[in-house]
Amino acid sequence: MHRFLRELLKFFSTLILWFLSIALVVSLIRLIMQGKTTSLGWAVTAGLVGGLFVFPKIKLLPLYVFGHELTHWAVAVLFRRKTSNIRLRLRSGSVDVDRPNIWIILAPYFIPFYMVLILGFYGLLLFCFRELPLWAETTMAICIGVTYAYHLVLTFIAISNGQQDLKINGVVFSLSLILALNLIFVYLGLMLATRQFQPGTHILYQQLKLQALSVIDAAKWIASLISTPKQAHE
Question: Do residues 68 and 178 share a domain?
């Protein structure tokens, strides 16, 4: 019974994640169509597009393995889990974690490790210096785009090659969670790059509301189809 309830919860969670992912994709398109991209936004885009072309050919696997396992370890520490035996090889690695939860297991697939490092360094620079020269801001923006492209490409390659991490909580559910969280990162990044926080939030809210109303209407239609034969029989 406990397993049935867990699988049922996972099923409905997957539906919610796809619901959110669709809303994020549509909202991304709508926000991009507004065309209010700053110079830093273009720099991030240039770094992202360039990285998407380069990293499928130049994978730098040892660098990815290091970031992947360190992300497992860092999130485990945040959840106060005991860790030990971090093993790093050229093409694979592992870290022993006591009682790992889904966030620890899937963290490397939705947390862009090197982009987080760049953002942290960027934040430190802004803290130390009130204003940065344009070339420094542009360089940081390009690095943000490049590192996120690296995360996307290497995550796709890792998933394509098959990962035990995804099988622990079910492949469909794990992929749905990874997709939704990566889209959230992209959407937040786009709002930051274009400095459209209020419009971006409004667009996402309106899209979620529209989809919710569509789901309710569909549910009412299905309910009416089910109830009609009973009423005719009576």
Answer: yes
- Give the number of domains in the chain: 2
pLDDT-based confidence at 187, cuts 50/70/90?
Answer: confident
Is residue 63, in this structure, part of any structural domain at all?
yes
Q: State the pTM of this model.
A: 0.81
Same domain, 25 and 103: no
> Is residue 188 located within the same domain as residue 205?
no
Residue 232 pLDDT: 46
The three-state DSSP-derived secondary structure of the chain is CHHHHHHHHHHHHHHHHHHHHHHHHHHHHHHHHCCCCCHHHHHHHHHHHHHHHHCCCCCCHHHHHHHHHHHHHHHHHHCCCCEEEEEECCCCEEEEECCCCHHHHHHHHHCCHHHHHHHHHHHHHHHHCCCCCHHHHHHHHHHHHHHHHHHHHHHHHHHHCCCHHHHHCCHHHHHHHHHHHHHHHHHHHHHHHHCCHHHHHHHHHHHHHHHHHHHHHHHHHHHHHHHHHHHHHC
- Structural domain boundaries, residue 30: 21-36+198-219
pLDDT band at 188 (very low <50, low <70, confident <90, very high): confident
